[in-house]
Amino acid sequence: GAVENPGRSKALRKAIARILTVINEEE
User: Fold this and answer.
1) Domain extent for 14
2) pTM greater than 0.70 (yes/no)
3) Are the CB atoms for 9 and 2 separated by under 8 Å?
4) Looking at the 3D structure of the chain, how many domains does it have?
């Protein structure tokens, strides 16, 4: 989980935030 792999969770959140930003910019 997040406790076992904090780096992976952090990267995942960053990736999701980036995707959401791109979608918002396209709209």
Assistant:
1) 1-27
2) no
3) yes
4) 1
